[in-house]
Each structure stands twice: as C-alpha cells, then as structure tokens.
Amino acid sequence: MSKYYKQPEPSKRKILITAGCSFSTDNERLHTWNYYLDKGYDESYHLGADAYGNRLIARRVSEKLLSLDEPDADIDVVVMFSGISSIITYLTANNTYTRRKW
Predict the structure, then answer these.
(1) How far apart are CA 43 and CA 15, in angstroms?
(2) Helix-strand-coil percent breakdown of the chain, rounded to 5?
(3) I want to staple 73 with a disulfide (CB 3.0 to 4.6 A). Which of 13, 30, 32, 66 is the partner?
(4) Mean of the per-residue pLDDT values for the chain?
(5) 18 and 44 in contact (C-beta within 8 Å)?
C-alpha cells in the first residue's frame, strides 16, 4: 500500500433524538420542527408530547440515550424545553396533588 493511501473509515450510523413539549408533538396533519430535521439520518426518535415539563423531557432523552446500544453511532440530540414558568402537577398514590413551580 502507498503511504498516501488512507483506508476509508466505515460509515457510522447517524441517529437523531428530538424532544420537547407540545410544540414538538408531530402528527400526520401538522408537522412540527422536529419532522424537518430527520432527513439524512438512518434512524430518528421524536419524543415530544403534550403536557411534558422540563424534567420529563430530560428524563425521556436520558432514557432513550441509555437504551440505545450503538457505541459507534453519531447521535445528535435536539431539545425544545418548555417555558421556565411551567407548573407541573403530580398525582400521588393517595390522590393528593402536588404543584411544583419551575
């Protein structure tokens, strides 16, 4: 082999993860911002949903990253967090409500 020849690197899988609140919920009738980002990726995961607060958004992204068994993949993560003034309501086992203000 020539000293100038470089072996081509194997192509890495490209994965996109998007997440967010209701502004990130994509459906067939109305595509949101994340729909337009996934072109050029081998795989994409859109984790946005209505009523997701910032904590749940971060948790869903973390869980997805930990569940992927792709050590050599190029993974891009794009997140649209909800507003800082969001109020999250949790329902506990004894049906009491806890309101948490961000």
Answers:
(1) 5
(2) 20, 25, 50
(3) 13
(4) 80
(5) yes
User: Among 38-42, 80-84, 98-102, whose mean pLDDT is lowest?
Assistant: 98-102
pTM of the model: 0.71
Distance CA 71, CA 75 (A): 10
Structure tokens at 35: 């729909």
Residue 88's domain spans which residues?
14-101
Residue with tokens 């081509």: 8
Owner of token pair 């997701």: 52
Q: Is residue 89 part of a domain?
A: yes
Total domains, the chain = 1
Contacts of residue 58, defined as CB under 8 A and 6 or more positions apart, other chains included, come to 79
